[in-house]
Hints:
232 residues; alpha/beta; 2 domains; binds 2'-O-acetyl adenosine-5-diphosphoribose
Amino acid sequence: MxxxxxxxxxxxxxxxxxxxxxxxxxxxxxxxxxxxxVATPQAFMRDPVRVHDFYNSRRGRLPTVMPxxxxxxxxxxxxxxxxxxxxxxxxxxxxxxxxxxxxVIHMHGQLNHALCAGCGHQWGWQGSMSTGDVCAACGxxxxxxxxxxxxxxxxxxxxxxxxRMAGCDLFVAIGTSGAVYPAAGFVAGAREQGAxxxxxxxxxxxxxxxxxxxxxxxxxxxxPQWVDSVLK
Length: 232
Ligand code: OAD
């Protein structure tokens, strides 16, 4: 059967070779800081300065890194594939956009966006964020937070994702450990509806058994190879 609807899910592994840390690999983000201290709404209420410091440092890294051949190959597929390619990322960086992707669903939010915890307004943000910042819509102070999804919060765009997943005949997970739900559950849903599933990762992920095919290695090499095989 010919593939007409591809859904790609990416995780931190796709940006690793650009110089951004993954979360659960040796030396990853969660081995250096406890997620309970920086990535929950409770952490922000308890110690907003610490939470801002954590995300300011990650946002500050963005201008110093570049997209790698994996980002560029995904963008090439989105532009060149005859059917539809939906790109869902768990990453909060902007490397897919800078790699040329025309459409990116950021289910865990974006570092270069702000969210007002008071009124829900979302807007673009560059540079550091602090407790002294004021919401661009309601004018409240102290409610401005990074527009990233924290543990215990609902990821973004779940309706759109469900719609795209329902129509997909090929699901491909790239550079994600399969440890965080709901994203980790997408492969099971794809299988149930009869889609083919491919995992492209440095090593087998936590739910590797649910994939029909594994392509193991560095994303900068494996992703362009896979894209070439689809576009040939
Ligand atoms: P993880 O750090 O859990 O997993 C990254 C995966 O990428 C691992 O399976 C690595 O083997 C793989 N990897 C590392 N380098 C690679 C490379 N060069 N090429 C290919 N694969 C490579 O990151 P995620 O699965 O993205 O959420 O984590 C999911 C979520 O957990 C994140 O979005 C974040 C985190 O807590 C929130 O903060 C809400």
